[in-house]
Specification:
The structure is a single chain. Strands 1-2 form a two-stranded antiparallel ribbon. A two-stranded antiparallel ribbon has the order 3-4. The longest helix is centred in the middle third of the chain and has 33 residues. It has two domains: about 40 residues, no CATH class; about 130 residues, no CATH class. The chain is built from six helices and four strands. By secondary structure, it is mostly helical. About 25% of the residues are buried.
Length: about 200
Amino acid sequence: MADANPATPVATRCGRCQAALSESERVSAGDRVFCRTCYDILKLQLRTGVAAMSQDINYPMAMVGALLGGIVGALAWWGVTVLTKIGFGLVAVVIGVLVGHGTLRFAGGKRSVGLQILAVAVGALSFLGAVYLVNMTFINDALAQRGDALRVSFPPTGLMMFYAVIAANFGIMKLVFLGIIVYEAWFIPRPIKLPSA
């Protein structure tokens, strides 16, 4: 025998305070529904949390993280070059990733334009240092094969030597890799932007 009373619809409840909501009181946020008061409270908490990410930044620690990332990335690229005798430029891209994440993590998860600038500067300098190491390796190998006793030293004896070694094969692909490194270093510690209401 059919049920004479159809099932009563279950009231939609606020995902935070569990209050029953009418159609006009509902505010959807993703896959959840809230009452207007709870939605405003959550929105304020979110905005406050995001704003706090760009305050009280420990820039010295962020610098330590960026430098560690840059050093590890530069040594990784140089190590691959020494082991394979091939300068895989694509490996250099890891410099930007490590610098960006090092900056972000050592800053305690903070994000700001200042951290982005720091990461880009360290990433670019780390890339140039890595280019010097890679080119130094190839130049010294070529000198050794010729029987020449001259060697390119590390650290370089001056800015002119640093520039000369870096410029030895600095072409369009190096600029592409530098661009990718700068992009990664800029993108990773970027501030979070919330959509306007």
